[in-house]
């Protein structure tokens, strides 16, 4: 545990406070995102540094007390194994890639205990998997990294997953990871110590804008694809919404108010591919994500991604990725 880490810096913020330091516990899970963890803990360090006061303390734990390897290969040391936490502590599960494998029954039991004894619990990046395993997300709003949302929904279809940057619902706090962790922790600093300090921490992070809970994790389709044609965007959004269905391209064009030939020209001009190729790529990418993060059988993945038969799916998957879906599934899981 950090016993009042107050680094020395040049910038300073005068803050009068009599409140006790808040304590954060970070449970580091295997293959966690170092970016998300750093983006969460650094605002706390900066707040202490700017004020010259111990506003925040933190403890890093792991399941067994041993160091934990991040998804980038860097090993992080911890203070101790999972155990007692201070009253009023915030307890965050820090995860990353392969989150299903990272959260054991022991981790789930410990997170459930933290929740039942009144702690605020949270998840960074894919940390919501640990909270779901613990059974404490029913009826709660939460989020996790957009890359993992599709397989999460397949595993936990009954839970209320949101697509926002971060979500605070009662004593559950989650964020999508990456820079969204900074936005979440800036929010906590703002609520505890006000706008002057939170703005100063934001500036030290070179973060420029404090994004709100309502902001989306991803750029709009228009921004990410670099297109503004509303007809084309309408078609692409329909593909996303109905990817598990059989899609008739003539009907799609008609509903968008364009001819089939016009639709073909729009895709060729803006995306350098045909509508059929774009849709196939979309289906295959989604199938790959499902097999990488869930235990769904290949036949169910095929259905979930709109393929009429498993044979057709397997053929297209091998053509696209150079390996059969069965082999890919075994390797991933």
Using brief descriptors, characterize the structure shown.
about 325 residues; alpha/beta; Tscrpt_reg_AraC-type_HTH; Rossmann fold; 11 strands; DNA-binding transcription factor activity; 15 helices; Transcriptional regulator, AraC family with amidase-like domain; sequence-specific DNA binding; transcription; single chain
Overview of the structural elements:
The protein is of the alpha/beta class. The protein folds into two domains: about 20-205, Rossmann fold; about 220-330, Arc Repressor Mutant, subunit A (Orthogonal Bundle). About 45% of the residues lie in helices and about 15% in strands. It has 15 helices and eleven strands. The strands form three sheets. A seven-stranded mixed sheet has the order 5-2-1-6-7-11-10. The protein has a two-stranded antiparallel sheet with strand order 3-4. Strand 3 and strand 4 (about 75) form a beta hairpin. Helix 1 crosses helix 7 and helix 5 (about 150-155) crosses helix 12. The longest helix has 19 residues, at about 275-295. The protein is globular.
